[in-house]
Design brief:
2 copies of one chain form a homodimer. Chain A has 310 residues and is of the alpha+beta class. The first copy, chain A, contains 9 helices and 12 strands. Chain A has 2 domains: 133 residues, 60s Ribosomal Protein L30, Chain: A (2-Layer Sandwich), CATH 3.30.1330.10; 143 residues, PurM-like C-terminal domain (Phosphoribosyl-aminoimidazole Synthetase, Chain A, domain 2). The longest helix of chain A is centred in the first third of the chain and has 18 residues.
């Protein structure tokens, strides 16, 4: 909105400035709460996600715009995995004094990722604090939300995209090096697979999850929720150039989708072009995830679990 | 939900435990996003609010349950101010190692405030971090949301509750003392005025805001949004025993409602009994807030603005 009617005060000055920065990407900010319309016949789909400095990223790795984009894209990726169309984004920012000058950059990143997904920033909250954190809540609508719980024995397992970039970028930084531009971009500017999730739900996919913790680990959540076994053939996993299948199946932060669908549904044909859609396995009876490479069963060492005790 | 189907990992163990703690108060947790139904003919009303240790509270002041309750109640208060019925709550928690043992207490507080408002915990996210923060997103539904923008010259200004307790509790703590039990409870266990907001909207109130920053400051937001002047007679402001009107009009954290309504609408009769509903002023032409005491115009020194530069 072009005019924001708030009283005086530092927090309100900041909110006014961010709302001006967002321009048409901000809607209805300035009341106690945002008001949205969920289209008739659709369910509301909602998720919240928090990105914390020194836990999810380091300041030296990313620009403020990238930090804002990444946090927002990570949250929107949950809507993609539900086959939901994004409606709005709320940003709760804890902004330390040392990050004050980066506030506009963070906000531009939040706004850009929101715009890219076809949604609007509809609300938020700002607070001081000692460490930067970005809490993103995303709202979407779906006629038939795609859950983790619908995979059936006999279904095919598909993934979007190419794996291995973000983990390699992280490894480079953590060893004091610099990632390649491509790996860095995969970490810094993930693109939530919104169109893919919507098309998969429409085409008859039975379950989906996005890869935030690592392909094998997230496939494990899908297997648990569906009461099935997921069998992944890592030979078929699409990789970034030079990628290594075991590392790619363990690495988090991909924000690609794992989808299951009946054998009769060709998701590669049903999903929009431009992003690879690849068969990587099947759904069996049982539980857990079995990963194979060549003719051997291999163990994928679990990825990222930022809430584990150190 | 009684059974939560997630894979292995420390974060998931914590989520499982909290979901068990919440019992019937948790619904649908365990997928990428929560799915809710907004009743036909109602708008979705949504707000997000972040509470940060050392900014909004200190650990020594409150129990973990109170911290969880307070953060959730503060967020739900925004739904009350919109005349919305709560549907669901999402909690994004940043939990430092030093707070690990308090996690269950925090979650019980979040769950209790959610239950008190008739809603369910529908999702969340947990992360490590160096300072505790609780991001609460609240979802509600309203047939006709009550905004800040509808006050008209000639309307009467009403408030719920009695003012002055939370500011006096804060002052006691900040001077190294202990607040009275009543003042402490007003700070630690605010009750969002959900039923009052719903009844006010149904009775024909024209605008509302909740008092988080201070009566005078929040009335200023309502005045700015409505394009009117708010005239408050502090002689009429209901106070906690021993309360002082100027301090009570400046103090934040009240989570009471300021409501405007046409002269013909008696909000004291329309709102549920048990909480005082008091005429404290009128809406005039112009802008800003004018506060008077006796026959003098007095200045209310602005309350709490935690995002101001120190």
């Amino acid at each position: 909105m072009s005019h924001l009617a708030l009283g005086a005060g530092g927090e309100f000055d900041a909110i006014r400035r961010l709302t001006a920065l967002w321009g048409e990407q901000a809607q209805g900010i300035g009341d106690d709460a945002a008001v949205l319309t969920v289209p008739p016949g659709r369910s509301l789909v909602v998720s919240t996600d928090v990105s914390v400095e020194e836990v999810h990223f380091r300041r030296a790795w990313l620009t403020p715009e990238e930090i804002g984009w990444r946090a927002t894209a990570a949250a929107l990726s949950d809507l993609a995995a539900m086959g939901a169309e994004p409606l709005g984004v709320l940003w709760a920012g804890v902004i330390p004094d040392a990050w004050r000058d980066a506030l506009d950059g963070l906000a531009l990143g939040v706004g850009a990722a929101t715009r890219h997904a076809g949604a609007a920033v509809v609300g938020g909250d700002l607070s001081r604090g000692v460490a930067l954190s970005l809490g993103l809540t995303v709202l979407g609508a779906a006629a038939r939300p795609l859950t983790r719980a619908g995979a059936k024995p006999g279904d095919v397992v598909w993934v979007t995209g190419r794996f291995g970039g973000p983990a390699r970028a992280l490894a480079a930084w953590e060893h004091g090096g610099r990632p390649t531009d491509d790996d860095r971009a995969r970490f810094a500017r993930p693109v939530p697979r919104i169109a893919q999730g919507l098309a998969a739900a429409a085409a008859g996919a039975t379950a989906a999850i996005d890869v935030s913790d690592g392909l094998a680990q997230d496939a494990g959540h899908l297997a648990a929720a569906s009461g099935v076994r997921i069998e992944l053939r890592l030979d078929d996993l699409p990789l970034v150039p030079g990628g290594e299948p075991l590392a790619a199946a363990a690495g988090g932060e991909e924000y690609e989708l794992v989808l299951t669908a009946p054998v009769s549904v060709d998701l590669a044909a049903a999903l929009p072009p431009g992003v690879p859609v690849t068969r990587v396995g099947r759904v069996g009876m049982g539980h857990g995830v079995v990963t194979s490479l060549g003719d051997r069963v291999v163990e994928v060492v679990p990825g990222h679990d930022h809430f584990s005790r150190p």
